[in-house]
Amino acid sequence: MLEWASMRVRADVDSPGGTSEAKPAKKSGISLALGGGAARGWAHVGVLRALDEAGIEINMIAGTSIGALVGGCYLAGKLDELEEFARSLTKRRIFGLLDLQFVGGGLFGGMKLNARLQQHLNGVTFADLPKPFVCVASEIRTGHEIWLSSGSLITAMRASYALPGVFEPVTANKRVLVDGALVNPVPVSVCRAYEQPLVVAVNLHYDLYGRAAVIKHSAGELVVERDANPPGRPGGGAATREARLGVMGVMVEAFNIIQDRISRARLAGDPPDLSLQPKLGHIGLSEFHRADEAITLGYEATKAQLADLERLQTVLG
User: Fold this and answer.
1) Which residue of 3, 105, 202, 279 has the fewest CB atoms within a 10 Å radius of its CB?
2) Is 122 exposed, middle or buried (0-12, 13-18, 19+ CB in 10 A)?
3) 220: Cβ–Cβ under 8 A, 6 or more apart, which residues?
4) Between β-strands 170-172 and 175-179, what pairing exists: parallel, antiparallel or unpaired?
5) Which of 138, 149, 179, 260 is catalytic?
6) Active-site residue 88, yes or no?
7) pLDDT tens per residue, range 60-83
8) d(CA 189, CA 176)
9) Is the distance from CB of 35 to CB of 67 less than 8 angstroms?
C-alpha cells in the first residue's frame, strides 16, 4: 500500500489585538500534474522556467511519462542538463540513442537513454528530493495504476515513460511496469490524494480537436493497403509510401488516441484548479528534435496565465 503524504491544509488565524497595519496577501504554493505527451513534453521545461521566474512556489509534482522525466529532473536540480540535452537533439542523434532489439517487450531496450540518466542521477532516490514527487506507471499484467514515490528515481522515471511496444517494460519490486499514460495521462488525482490545496495541470493534448468525434462512414470495398496504390498506378509510388505510418507510427498514434480519450474522461471527473494548455498539436509525438519550439510554447502559455494563477494563490493563501 502506498504511503500517503502528511501534508494538510492549514488556516492561519490572526491573534486578537494585532496591529491595524495591512498585511500582504499570503499566497498558497501549487502542486503540478505534468501530463504525458512524448515529444510534446519538452513544453514542461518551459512551464517550469516561467513558474520559477515568477517566484511561484511548487509544493509537489506528480508526473506521467515525459512529465515524470521532466518533473524528476527539475526536483533533482538537473533541469539545466535536461534542457541542454533536449535542445541538442537532432533526428540523427535521436536514432543513435535508440538501441534496436528483436527480442524482449519493446522495439528499443532504452539502455542508451538510461546511461544518459545515470550520468546525472546515479544513486538519487525520492528521499533526496526537496519536495514530494510521484511517478505514475501502469502494471502491464493487472492494469493497476502504480504510484512510485520511493526508491530509485531513475527506475521510476523509466517505468513511467516505458511506452508499450516501443520501450522495454521496467521491473520494479516484481511488478512489470509500462507508461503511466495508459491509466492516468494527467495525474491531477495524485495531487488531490496528497491533499494539495491548488492543483495546476499541464495538459499537452488540449488542442487536438476532433479526436473524440464520432463519424458515420461507408466501408466501401475491401482494399488491402499494400496493393492499393502500387507504383505505376495513379496515386501510387513514393507519395503513398510517405502517407503510410509504418509500425512505429501506428503504435504511437494508437497510444495517442488512448491517452487523449482517457485524459478527457479523467479530467472531466476530477478537474484541476487551473489548466495550462500549450498549443502543441502540430508537433508530432516522436519529434523530439523540436525541443526549442516546444519549450518556448510551454513558457509562453504559462506566462499568459500567470495572472490567473496568482489570483488563485491569493484566494487560497
Assistant:
1) 3
2) exposed
3) none
4) antiparallel
5) 179
6) no
7) 999 999 999 999 999 999 999 999
8) 22
9) yes
Element (H, E) at 203: none
Tens of pLDDT along 246-267? 776 777 777 777 778 888 888 8
d(CA 198, CA 56): 12
- 222 pLDDT tier (thresholds 50, 70, 90): confident
Q: Where would I find the H helices in the chain?
A: 43-53, 66-75, 79-87, 91-97, 111-121, 153-160, 188-193, 225-228, 238-243, 246-269, 291-304, 306-316
Asked if residue 114 lies in contact with residue 74, where contact means CB atoms within 8 angstroms, the answer is no
Give the whole-angstrom CA distance, residue 70 versus residue 64: 10
How far, in Å, CA of 231 to CA of 159, rounded? Answer: 43
Annotated catalytic residue: which of 28, 31, 65, 263?
65
Q: What is the dihedral of CA 65, 71, 74, 80, to 10 degrees?
A: 40
* 67 closest CA partner among 226, 254, 203, 175: 203
Cell of 146: 502504480
Q: Is 275 a catalytic residue?
A: no
Number of C-beta neighbours around residue 198 at 10 A: 21
pLDDT(8) > 80: no
| Nearest by Cα to 68 from 185, 205, 214 | 185
